[in-house]
Amino acid sequence: xxxxxxxxxxxxxxxxxxxxxxxxxxxxxxxxxxxxxxxxxxxxxxxxxxxxxxxxxxxxxxxxxxxxxxxxxxxxxxxxxxxxxxxxxxxxxxxxxxxxxxxxxxxxxxxxxxxxxxxxxxxxxxxxxxxxxxxxxxxxxxxxxxxxxxxxxxxxxxxxxxxxxxxxxxxxxxxxxxxxxxxxxxxxxxxxxxxxxxxxxxxxxxxxxxxxxxxxxxxxxxxxxxxxxxxxxxxxxxxxxxxxxxxxxxxxxxxxxxxxxxxxxxxxxxxxxxxxxxxxxxxxxxxxxxx
Length: 291
What we know:
Elements: H1 13-28, H2 33-40, H3 44-51, H4 59-68, H5 73-86, H6 104-112, E1 115-120, H7 131-141, H8 147-160, E2 171-177, H9 178-182, H10 188-201, E3 207-212, E4 226-230, E5 239-243, E6 248-251, H11 254-274, H12 278-288
Parallel strand pairs: 1-2, 2-3
Antiparallel strand pairs: 1-4, 4-5, 5-6
Helix pairs in contact: 1-5, 2-3, 4-5, 7-8, 10-12
């Protein structure tokens, strides 16, 4: 399980990549954690936290580690330049109090991913929600929020959707359970607007959307929501995110990641076989909310 976490020190993807690169270089040079800690005048735990991206990449520490690993000076300077960039907070940093403590790392991964696969059994996924639908979902999830607090959560969710407008937008593959579209969120008018938004989204070249109907029966994804991330950088392995009411898990072990990827592929194929014409399905569903 990955040691990614939320909070004010939530790492950007670049910081995670550089931290993993430091670990990789140390391993290649056959330098132990104890030796690295001695060079820094600190503890093995501190070195481990640096390599897990749990703390920032201090220039002094990075320079000393790369010197120990006998990295050529031009590469050291390039690494330090990237580390300086990685110290810049992500766009979500000013809104971190509006995010659950464990979710900041998710936003970082989402922002830096090249491929995102989502399975969502309960609601339309956040990347495809309208403002009105998002507000209704947030109101249910955070009933104690003031109106201002609620609007800030909604704003963060909508800002996350900007990744789909980037020049190099990630490929996004979403499988929704039929229950996510049958569950009335915010009333019939909100649902009509949400379905219209999904219909418009079907024209996006980097988006694949599937709906898994009730008639599909049991399937491999029935355990609950998950998100699979893949990245361009070879230093950062695929990661799967799952969550509950009070926390989340970031899985990066090969077996865990492969199991979730295969499950997503199977339920996606099953959904497409059951509803091959999603346009017609969504148009028909929209009519039901007009009654």
